[in-house]
Amino acid sequence: MGLDKGVPASGIRDSDRFGSTSANDPLQRVPSAGRKRADRISQVFHQLGTPDQLIVGWTGRLSGQPPTLAALRSHVHERLSTLPALTHRLTPGSRAPHWEPASPPDLRKHVHALRVANPAAWQDAPSQAQALPLPPEHHPRWDLWLITRYDVNHEYVLLLRIHHALADGAGILHVAHVLLALPPWQGTTRPQPPQALGLLRDTREACRLTRDVAASLRPGRPAPPFHQLPTGRRSYASASVSTQHMRELAGALDTSISKAFLTALAATVRGVALSDGTAPTPLAVFWPLSTRQATEQEAAGNFISMARIWLPCDDGSPASSAERIAAQLVPEAIEQRVAASRRLLRHAPPGTARWMIRRWMRGRLTPLTATYLSVSGGHTAAQEGKTTGFSIWGAPVPTQLCHVTLTRFGDQCELSVVYDEALSCGAAFPRLWQAALENLREHA
pTM score, two decimals? Predict the structure, then answer.
């Protein structure tokens, strides 16, 4: 693999280069203890697939002299009180899994070092680390890797991996906010909704959710190359483009960066189908929506809903494709969907809710999940270092073939693709997306 595990960087002081928080720092609040039932989506994620299939996380690239492994463990230990996702585990209950505070985590089992022996393997080191197993289930299911190089001591990588049952996208961004000193992601949380949304709105959204579930029961599969059955073996690929290029495309299409990302995704799938001699057809994808409220910013678990949207892969016009995507993501309709989903998951009988979630997430008709996240960048993460790159990566549910995430950080946008090896175009997907993006820029 070109990596040595557990070898601390030589010649680095043992001092904690990450700074410290004062006793009055709000990050030192202690979360409430006790055992309580997990949210319904986390219950489903806990029970889906094999233990190492639903791993999500982030990769942070930092400049400056790397800390020692001991210093990094000390840094994490000082901040665990505000990271319930790292201090809780899911345990079986009589009816459903429960959150249970773990004894103080043994950070020797959770925080590790990887030393890149081959300088040429530096760019691939994060993807190699992602293939390693998480700590066993009787421990909180997460780990943090310090990746350094033999030949230089002025840059390093921190890689967080965590089981999806413990944290959603907003949750792992909160961990980055605490450990990397990144600004909190303001788009994560939503204000407290009104007590009643109105019977008509709730009924309308309940009908839409039921229609989504019913669609998962219909026979049939997507067109190639997304028609294969998953193998359960996952791989990772990535690519980056400048934020300026994304802004230019969004401006040319009179839309946002997130919708320009989806437009390029539709063009990518269209190009793959045409190259295979297949007529392009619309492809259904999941678009996660955060349902977190301001009081839940630090909470472990999953506060999400899903919108099923259709990528117009049959449309060769960039402007028309962007319009069709925007029509499915009208802000008011999305907010109604989020609020109604939250209420329905909270008040539906637990068994019914879990059954609906499982059906809702079936990959037979929705083989791909797409996510866009914008994270503030350029802030100091250590006394002698700075976060120079940051990306989030997700995980397809076991019945899906692919999870695509675009993370905007400073002047770069990084595309992270986690794909099942049954997807023939998986390894080439980032490169194909870049090519589709350039083609859209030329013709938009």
Answer: 0.83
